[in-house]
Amino acid sequence: xxxxxxxxxxxxxxxxxHQPGYGLFQGSNRKMLEQFINDGVLxxxxxxxxxxxxxxPDHNNLRSYLHNKYGIPSLENYIVFLDSExxxxxxxxxxxxxxxxxxxxxxxxxxxxxxxxIQCQLNGKDFLVKPEQGTFIFINDYKNFxxxxxxxxxxxxGFENFRxxxxxxxxxxxIKPLFLWRYQNSTSIANWLKLIPNNYLHFGDYDPKGLHIYxxxxxDKIGVDRCRFLVPENLETLMIESGEKVLYEDQVxxxxxxxxSEFENVHDVYKIITKYKKGLAQEVLIQ
Length: 287
Prior knowledge:
Blueprint: H1 5-15, H2 28-38, E1 43-47, E2 51-55, H3 59-70, H4 75-83, H5 89-96, E3 110-113, E4 118-122, E5 125-129, E6 137-139, E7 145-146, E8 151-156, H6 159-163, E9 176-182, H7 188-193, E10 200-203, H8 208-222, E11 227-229, H9 235-242, H10 245-249, H11 264-276
Parallel strand pairs: 8-9, 8-10, 10-11
Antiparallel strand pairs: 1-2, 3-6, 3-9, 4-5, 4-7
């Protein structure tokens, strides 16, 4: 059993000289506390007739116990590790002696695609984005990746649309696009957009989930002034001819927390979706 952060925090309090109440240990932490007491690592002091205060009689014994039984060489480092979002496997080894103790993001970043050459920069050096047919470029160090200001970043939800973007050039005649696809649902694209001035165009499905992704993961994070949702001119016709009711019925709850009157760019999409009670997959736009 792993030591949870709440339990680790209470252990650190005891090392710092505090005596937390027994009632602070709940659920699995209560079971673990009893094990620590049974093993003679922790003890308690009765307070009145019903309360107990937990304390550590020997700090060195506690540290040895954590190291030998749970592989935690440093409780302080362990707490920092649990509290950190950006951790590596080397951090896990230092904190827990186990490289796979916590799921870590082995790949942060996103795939890029383009149908014209785009001269970018990576770590201050020229970097040409020109994927060969059937290949993509993976940008891992996105914090040091920059593009010309006249380029519009296009976030593509569907992998098939991203892969076959050459067959959808008719949708992007008025912009110079660089196409991005999220890797394992990472937040890297939104984080990168906060660092650059470029406009963002979202290319997703025309259903409740598609609107929810755009609003919650992009418009809300980087501002509606820089964001647009791609709306083809014939969306209503496509919805009538190719829309699917199941996409609406299974996802309609995704719409309930948004006031679409506040989002002018997607208000018309919202009206079409709710008018026909259908959803439309973006793959229909591949020609």
